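Hey, quick one: can you model this chain's 3D structure?
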Amino acid sequence: YQSRTLPSKIYSWSITDILRCESISQVASNPLIIDYVSNYLGCLPTCYSMNCMLSFGTSHHGTTVRHRDQDDFKFVCLFVYLNDVDISKGPHIFEKGTHLHSGNDKTYGPEEVIIGKAGEGFITDTWGYHRGAPVANGKGRICLWIRYGLYDNWTSRVADKNFEIKIKDHHIDMNNEMNKYVFRFMLE
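Sure thing. Here's the predicted structure for all 188 residues.
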């Protein structure tokens, strides 16, 4: 992309391009990640959503407003920064402990501002309140997210239509029984 020609907003890559990327496939299907997520969820997870977003300049997008995701009963999101992210490039801000409370908007937790180098990632339970800090004018952040939950996710099936695509030319080993289960709705 040519950053000097982009208007300030949020851009996303197509899920087909994301799944065709060998590096992303290796991260998404990494046995250590799957094991960590399985331990948190209490079962082998289902990968139900992937997105890669370029946030450029001050977009006022909904992801920069304090919110909690309402994907499912229990779910997590792996975020990976694809460029160096400092305070001027819209780091992820998570309110610690809010994932343990009901939907009461008056519950606030101490904020953790997560900056990092390109390639660094973190997993959060995005039922907890979070947001992306605003990106400074002329700056950009590229962030990959991979979401794992308990089972077939209605939001991704109906709203995102992620399961209608069925990517064939991907790099996830579907001969592996664990991957067959985790990615069963997204890949053939």
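One thing worth noting: Helices lie at 15-20, 22-28, 31-41, 154-160, 177-182.
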